[in-house]
Amino acid sequence: MLIRAPRPEDAADITQTMAQPECFGNTLQMPHPTEQMWRERLTSKPDNIHVLVVEMQGRVVANGGLELATSPRRRHVANIGMAVHPEFHGQGVGAALLAALLELADNWLALRRIELEVYSDNEAAQALYRKHGFEVEGTAREYAFRDGRYVDALLMARVKAPG
């Protein structure tokens, strides 16, 4: 397993991951992503977004990122998001990617607070986030429209103690 920065040629693999119902259904992404869209996202990424991918056997099987808050008063905060191709669920890929993103946040970006939103029915993701120190701070009712209905999301955060 190799965790690294993405390259434009990773767009095809990322598109394949994000085209999976388990991935677009558990994120705010839309069905039917295009490779062109992902290539553009990889090549024109704003400075406040840091992305990592997981490569296994020459294939990118997961991607995740930190979006740093741009308000001067929230420069210590980022929102995290990630997706793992369903073929690689249960193999530690998500845990490794999350650990790498948190290491980047803690040791290189001086972030104190990492926020995320996770659908209330995505118990596997919630368990992963809890293992890495995230706590539920609230519920966003009817947070998003998914598969013909509104769904709730849990608002979770990990706040690193000073020092």
What are the SSEs and their pairings?
Blueprint: E1 2-4, H1 11-18, H2 21-24, H3 35-43, E2 49-56, E3 59-68, E4 77-84, H4 93-107, E5 113-119, H5 123-131, E6 135-146, E7 149-159
Parallel strand pairs: 4-5
Antiparallel strand pairs: 1-2, 2-3, 3-4, 5-7, 6-7
Structural description of this entry:
- This protein is of the alpha+beta class and 163 residues long.
- Helices cover 28% and strands 36% of the residues.
- A hairpin with an 8-residue loop joins strand 3 (59-68) and strand 4.
- Helix 1 packs across helix 3 (35-43).
- 26% of the residues are buried.
Describe the structure concisely.
The chain is α+β, with helices and mostly antiparallel strands.
